[in-house]
């Protein structure tokens, strides 16, 4: 790729041709403050916070609108640039309500942070502020506060460029401007609506599920991977006291850029319905160790007549142990399923060319890689088997009805109810591991909350392997990953 | 709400004059405002559907340009220029006189729905101020007597014919 | 002094706008006689030679602007006539639109030919309803006669013109705002670069000129660029329409040769100050140009250089004359309100700053000002000017800086007295000619 060399604050830097100055600086350790610029949106140059001086140019230039040019000499640390930044912050703040104490954005607000870093000056504004609507419902998900808004247009550009619903716009003119939906419209049917909250540089857009719930600095952030579909969007799961308060996209240019869909988010923030719990045999709770030894014995005895149905919610590491177990026992009937199918009735998006994939499980690629011999459960010949080890929810009951079922699942569905042996598993936020997304990218995630009432599948497979006399290939995620 | 047949013909012609349909946003809004006196939410829907563009684009335009109105106003909207040249020549007197005569304040409509009074920025009639606009018609070189006559004529449905600007040199 | 009449070469007898009248005074002769013999490049060359500068306010030479079009270009080229005359004090394009529209159309045909424009748009501010009707009628006549919509005599070039009605927005007077408006968007301005000549209307190369500039082109082509350059001064060639308003006896639109003495213009054409009052101040080029005091304009001539040297700008040629007895604070309050009202809302310094300026000036006028407000005003303008996307930010600052600088005493008086020395009535001149 063609490269361009320029100097920034006297330092020579080389970046690919076509890079925007603001990114070129950042990549070389010089952070240019900004509000409207977002690396995954088209620049709009409206906030003026990123103005810098470029030699031979009498006026300061927006670094977010300026592609680098060979030999360009840029100054970002002159007194003039510092003064411009202070001035822009002062302008942004004159009509801002300064209600940081009750603002959900406080603690991660670009306006707060950049004011601390680039200004700190007292305001000279002694006039009445422009009054605007503070509680504008953008539907069931989001509330907009026009007074906090700095009309940077990021949210408008998200609905234009990311979700492509073109729902938001900025109406009125001058200092009366505010973000709005068309009359009667909501963001409810925008599948990426929460992204406007994540990427609002101030507290103008807040999510109803999180509003006033917790101060952001008390939240513990755990890197995770969304289990809502096979895209594997990178996310932060934010928790306190073992409770998920918030989920946000984690930037990854190769997978999800800065975005995630609302379905994925609500997968975490809405309390899951019908979670399975406990270890049971014939519907009676049993001791875990008893469960492990009975199931191990049963599998060992009936390996030839057992169908093994792998879960596309399982981690790669769990799958590796399961593979070891299946091989060790000589189980031949291996199947996979689509664990969760798209529900047309819920208004959920089946698939789009943005992020959402039709396969709503996170690790089908991992299943297929681990068990290349696995057949679709739809092709199972039921008369070949007497037992079925069904892992994960959503298997078609009619295919396996009548078999003796051993079910390992986090969800209590119809099959869970029919099983003879039940062990409640964990969902991805409760465990460490990795998923392989639809195009083969393997991504690790960390446990965000404890799954105390349920059993860890990884441990279960280790225990069963030991019970049947095998030495597990690893006892932790790391060990298993290194063993592969 | 729908476009009339004549309007549809005009729209078909306008489509040949611009490479992108969105360009018809302002012309169609004018078309509706001329007919209805304002651009309702229903009209926004109509325009957005006609041009196959998001409604919010149409609403942005309606709110951003100062000449489009969202709500029904008086039959005659008296728009008095309050900018520098007219102000220097006494536009405040004209405004005060209209307020007194019609018993309304700026921004209000007379109870009979006949007149709405507004102040507006420069209308490009600075040499003939004070002035006001009613519909497409400019009324220039206003004084109290002239205003009284205009109000009476409008009330009687007598609309003045448009003329080029009447600066004194050419009188 | 008698001035060459290029644009106002007609009698105001109520028929000047018709094709018949225009043809009688030699209209469309360039189309019939010159075009068959001239290549587009030659038309451009004549305009370059004329050195005519953009009459909208910025004063950029039109011929040079046209030559910025990309050489290897396969996209359509557009021509736009900027008739969004909105700078307070300006009403000169209105005369051309209402009373000499065919001259503008002829100029647009020539310009379209020179730049090989696929389509030309005339954007007329929404308030100019009458001008719009007149221009539309003239365009219709030109189509019927075959000047538009058919190949020009001796060429294969067809000129198409569409009249587009604005809807009330000063900032649309900026070329990129105007393009967005034609595209059916809010008339918010675009960051430059890219400049319109490279990427303008519909992302295609676009030339945009003021009404007065384009209406001057037929004379330039008929008489030659050199002949035009001989009028006026070396650097400010040609004639200029001045719209004079305020406290003068004979307000109106006048065509003068550039380089004309300002005081002569004020006393002769404009008829001097009304009611025998003394001159207090002049805003020489529309509301955004800095105000000048009588001592600044004594030796000033009406051309780009001289007015710049005097500390202001020729701008759109809108001369606003202010007589003694006028409250400058009140005038500034009106102007700052205007810029707050017209700020498009897009970029921070202008959106927030114009409203801040207005609220401070209004407070001073109302008697609640403080001495530190005056330095605050100029500090705010320092942070608006040149930091915005478009020149509206700069335009809002010109009057504030110059009013505070030149009439600081009057502002201080307001603050000390806790009110307006003119009792809030900054002027009540009812005298008319």
List keywords for this structure.
heterotrimer; A: 484 residues; alpha/beta; 8-stranded mixed beta sheet; 13 helices; 23 strands; C: 433 residues; 18 helices; 10 strands; 12% strand; globular; disordered C terminus
Task: Give an overview of the whole structure.
- The complex is a heterotrimer of chains A (484), B (171) and C (433).
- Chain A has helices at 21-27, 79-94, 110-118, 154-162, 194-198, 262-269, 288-301, 316-329, 364-370, 397-400, 414-418, 457-467, 477-483, and strands at 3-8, 11-16, 51-54, 61-62, 73-75, 136-137, 142-144, 168-171, 178-181, 205-207, 220-225, 234-240, 243-249, 279-281, 284-285, 306-309, 333-336, 375-376, 387-391, 404-409, 421-424, 433-436, 442-445.
- Chain A is of the alpha/beta class.
- The longest helix of chain A has 16 residues, at 79-94.
- With 171 residues, chain B is of the alpha+beta class.
- Chain B has seven helices and four strands.
- Chain B has helices at 5-15, 25-36, 41-51, 55-64, 84-88, 91-102, 144-155; strands spanning 76-81, 115-120, 132-134, 137-139.
- In chain B, a hairpin with a 2-residue loop joins β3 (132-134) and β4.
- In chain B, α2 runs antiparallel to α3 and α3 (41-51) packs across α4 (55-64).
- The termini of chain B are far apart.
- Chain C is α/β, with parallel strands linked by helices and 433 residues long.
- Chain C has helices spanning 19-24, 29-34, 40-50, 62-66, 92-99, 101-115, 129-145, 175-182, 211-223, 225-230, 262-269, 294-297, 304-309, 328-342, 348-365, 371-384, 392-406, 408-417, and strands at residues 78-83, 119-124, 161-165, 206-210, 239-246, 252-257, 260-261, 279-283, 301-302, 318-323.
- Chain C has a four-stranded parallel β-sheet, with helices on both faces. Chain C has a four-stranded mixed β-sheet with strand order 6-5-10-8, with helices on one face.
- In chain C, β2, α7 (129-145) and β3 form a beta-alpha-beta unit.
- In chain C, α14 (328-342) packs antiparallel against α17 (392-406) and α15 (348-365) packs antiparallel against α16.
- Chain C starts with 18 loop residues before the first helix and ends in a 16-residue tail after the last helix.
- The model of chain C is unreliable at 428-433 (pLDDT under 50).
- The chains are: A alpha/beta (484), B alpha+beta (171), C alpha/beta (433).
- Chains in contact: A-B, A-C, B-C.
- Chains B and C meet through α2, α4 and α5 of B and α5, α7, β3, β5 and β10 of C.
